[in-house]
Specification:
The protein is mainly α. Helix content is about 70%, strand content about 10%. The protein starts with 6 loop residues before the first helix and ends with a helix.
Length: about 90
């Protein structure tokens, strides 16, 4: 609990919460969305922005995970190859 009230965490967390509240308050205008088929339906602008940010964050996390996974496999292959070369 002390971690949340430290200066390094509390002020940035408070400012992000404030900006998030202002963001949700200001962007409530309904925006019509239409996909390939069907009629348009209205969704709040803040919901559209939040969903797109979440999708972007998920894609970024997946790409970092895949990159680290591939890099660790390549390092393992390189170590195994070096061990093989030392045996010869």
């Amino acid at each position: 609990m002390n971690f949340l009230f430290s200066k390094k965490v509390f002020l940035p967390l408070l400012s992000v919460a404030f900006l998030f509240a202002v963001f949700l308050d200001e962007n409530y205008v309904p925006v019509p969305l239409k996909f390939f088929f069907g009629g348009p339906f209205h969704l709040h602008l803040s919901a559209i922005i939040i969903v797109s940010m979440m999708v972007g964050a998920i894609i970024t996390l997946l790409s970092v995970f895949i990159f680290n996974n591939i890099r660790s496999k390549l390092k393992k292959m390189k170590v195994e190859k070096n061990i093989e070369m030392k045996r010869i």
